[in-house]
Design goal:
Structural class: alpha+beta
Radius of gyration: 30 Å
Strand order of the largest sheet: 6-7-5-8-4-3-10-1-11
Number of strands: 11
Largest sheet: 9 strands, mixed
Helix content: 55-70%
Number of helices: 14
Distance between the termini: 25 Å
Length: 400
């Protein structure tokens, strides 16, 4: 009879005790898997989003600093403006490699717009380095005045469909890859000329709310910094040379999100460690009880020819089966939880969130399964060693 077969029979025989061990491992695995998945998702989203943004610095009106951060990280639609000539002044600052402006506009809560409170972002095709590279790769031509690019989360629309913006039908000719950052995923991108045309036409159409796009105004300047100088130093130069603006270093904004996430998850990790220690103690106590209760059984197996190694493998096989069962169940529960509540997690924490790739998922699952297995087998190691040291006669007498 195989050791695994005996181990399964022993697990079934002590069903409720086995369930208790599985539940303890499940709680630990579910907590660890959920936390690590959220951390990995946020980190991936931040890296992908900033890569798509392509800017080391965002220059915004000083009074709109909080709004700009909320727009960048949480995707809250907002409008703020500064003089358009600021982009030319930024280009002259030492250390600035490239600069391109964008202008923000929100759709209205009227029939003139298919979706209300949607962020519209106008960009300058001649200087843009954030949207244009994607257009060159996917579209192979400039955008026309009736064409737009949409973020991936605007799933109600697809390439080839039309969307009404301030009474004008705009054709969707491209979708940006998902980044997890709402600033990109929930926005509509179009050239300045298209946004200005929408604004002008909205003023003369009946039943359409005027867009009221300020003339000669921009919302932000995206800045790429020369490699030989730090973004922090260039940000200081910009704020010193240009009054009324705030230069946000994107890496600092991302670091603030990481710190916010770290403070939150540190407490969760503390709880996870407590749960893990409790699980170790519980499994260790349970398997010590199992060894004490099975002294006669162990003695009989030894007297029938079972080696010390067979007895050791029997206990460790039971621990492995229970631990892996708990680990698999915990990963399923944790995965379902974060998938169902991913929107709530993102909105409540105001953080970018991008579902991990299949490869990242496989790695996270493998790590959690390994930790689950290590938890069960580590806790059962001492009882297993003690069981294999029992002499057959003493074990039989001790179990009577």
């Amino acid at each position: 009879m195989k050791v695994s077969h005996i181990a399964l029979k022993n697990i079934k025989r002590k069903f409720f005790r086995s369930i208790a061990i599985i539940i303890s491992v499940t709680v630990v695995a579910a907590t660890l898997f959920s936390v690590t998945t959220v951390m990995d998702s946020v980190e991936t989203s931040l890296e992908k989003g900033t890569a798509r943004l392509g800017a080391d610095i965002m220059v915004v009106p000083a009074k709109a600093q909080a709004q700009a951060k909320a727009t960048l990280l949480a995707g809250e639609p907002s409008t703020f403006y500064m003089d358009r000539n600021i982009v030319d002044r930024v280009r002259k600052i030492e250390g600035v490699k490239a600069a391109s402006s964008q202008v923000f506009l929100k759709t209205a809560k009227y029939k003139c717009c298919a979706v209300n409170d949607m962020q519209l972002i106008g960009f300058n095709p001649s200087t843009d380095f954030s949207i244009k590279p994607w257009l060159i790769k996917k579209l192979s031509r400039p955008l026309r005045d009736n064409e737009i690019i949409m973020g991936r989360e605007l799933t109600a629309f697809d390439v080839g469909s039309s969307i009404r913006i301030y009474g004008k039908d705009m054709k969707v000719v491209g979708m940006l890859d998902e980044t997890g950052m709402k600033f990109i995923d929930n926005s509509v991108f179009m050239p300045y000329s298209a946004m200005e045309k929408i604004s002008e036409e909205s003023k003369t159409k009946k039943g359409v709310k005027a867009a009221n796009l300020p003339i000669d105004k921009i919302s932000t300047v995206l800045v790429q910094v020369a490699p030989e100088i730090s973004a922090e130093r260039v940000a200081i130069f910009i704020e010193h040379e240009i009054d009324g603006v705030k230069a946000l270093v994107t890496e600092h904004v991302i670091s603030s999100v990481r710190k916010q996430l770290f403070v939150l998850l540190r407490s969760v990790f503390s709880i996870s460690i407590i749960l893990w220690v409790m699980a170790l103690l519980l499994i260790g106590v349970v398997f010590s009880m199992i060894v004490n209760e099975r002294q006669r059984e162990i003695g009989l197996l030894r007297s029938m020819g079972a080696s010390k190694g067979n007895i050791f493998r029997l206990i460790m096989t039971e621990a492995s089966i229970l631990s892996l069962s708990g680990g698999i169940l915990g990963i399923i529960i944790g995965g379902v939880f974060i998938y169902v509540f991913r929107g709530l997690i993102r909105s409540s924490l105001n953080i970018p969130y991008l579902w991990p790739s299949p490869l990242e998922f496989i790695i996270l699952i493998a790590i959690c399964l390994f930790l689950s297995l290590a938890t069960g087998t580590g806790a059962a190691l001492y009882p297993a060693i003690r069981s294999m040291r029992m002499e057959p006669y003493e074990a039989i007498r001790g179990g009577e």
